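Internal ticket #5521
Category: modeling
Description: The requester needs a full-assembly model to guide mutagenesis choices. All entity lines are attached below as received. Residue total reported by intake: 426.
Assigned to: D.W.
Attached entities:
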Amino acid sequence: MRVVKEAEERKEEILDVAEKLFGTKGFDNTSTGDILEEVGIARGTLYYHFKSKEEILDGVIDRMTEHMMAEAGKIARNQELPVLERLTKALLSFNVETPIGNEVVEQIHRPQNALMHQKIQETLLTGIDPIITELVEEGIRQGIFYTDYPAEVVEMTMLYANTAFDSIDTADLSPAELEKKIAGFIYNVERLLGTEKGSLQAALMKIFHRSET
Amino acid sequence: MRVVKEAEERKEEILDVAEKLFGTKGFDNTSTGDILEEVGIARGTLYYHFKSKEEILDGVIDRMTEHMMAEAGKIARNQELPVLERLTKALLSFNVETPIGNEVVEQIHRPQNALMHQKIQETLLTGIDPIITELVEEGIRQGIFYTDYPAEVVEMTMLYANTAFDSIDTADLSPAELEKKIAGFIYNVERLLGTEKGSLQAALMKIFHRSET
DNA sequence: TTTTGTCGACCGACTATCTGTCGGTTATTA
DNA sequence: TAATAACCGACAGATAGTCGGTCGACAAAA
């Protein structure tokens, strides 16, 4: 049976299925055949809308990150809240805001998904870091933080957080070890931002405990 | 023509070719057929020595990192040199010590090589970080550094350096931007290690300029 | 109202390529 | 000369991407 839909609608359908499958089975272990079958279309149709499997992955990631960045940007620009609170909320939005995306994030770090991980990392770095850096600079102007290199601090922090605190690396840590890793992270971020010991404790802890679900 | 060799020798031959090809064309773009052809053996022979293509990659990486770690370990244990010098030399050994490995490092960060990158990252993290951490702890005992979380500082620093200063990410930076990135990195490491501003300048600069070849 | 033409969406058989397997063969060594 | 380690290459199975052709909606012409 032949069903015709508008290109945009079909594309979304394909991305929906792809996102689910990539998240469940990983990118390498998901064949284009799996996608075809679940969407209910023929090979030719898939390749009519996307020119390669990798382009589908790009599509999935773009959709995810666009959503996350829009959310984070909105929070960051809300001048009514204090900087520290905006910072916390913006960071939180990455962990919880996307209920579908989360499944994906869970799977990102399996070896087979290295490509996916790297692509997300790249997108986040160019999309989110500027937003966070902006906030840090505002904090500097307000005297909350102090550093000569806000952009570099953010890059270092985000990059580390994004790969060090993933589900695989943290899975084989005891609760105590994880606690220490988090404590060390907070300690280090405080040093990087030139704030007093303990000043970020409360704000950053919120992030980790929320993300543990 | 049939040539028989001892398993170890054949394995090395295969790894030599694989290392070269993975470095040149990337892991995904190198087929097992390419390897067979260049080594001059049949399919069956390859799979007699390695049970999968991924195991070949693991073999290549293991060989590389073993060499690097042995070198770094030797330097770190040389009690005659001051800590700071040992630290510098140990870090230097990763960049220059392996003339073959370097080609690979050049290619690691292309998207197709995400898997390779991740595997190296993982091995370095479990193999090299302890060596460096040991040095940092010695520095702390000597009063050169100060931090409550030496292992976490090292993990953060190594992980960041390893992905932020790769050939792809730095390729599209202007010399001035790269300079700033390096300066920011040094500034941040000094803060993390609790040393005075400028105290690591000389030592760390040596690393970056040596690695630029 | 009916016919015809256009074009975007869709189909599925086919190709090319690749990884891993297996039964059988050759060289070496005890 | 018998056992075994190393080797061979045809083959199976899977997968990504291609291509010529089809279908259906919609609009213009009859």
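Resolution: model delivered.
Comment from assignee: Chain A touches chain B at residues 111-112, 114-115, 117-119, 147-149, 151-153, 155-156, 159-160, 163-164, 180-181, 183-185, 187-188, 191-192, 194 (CB under 8 Å).
Ticket closed.
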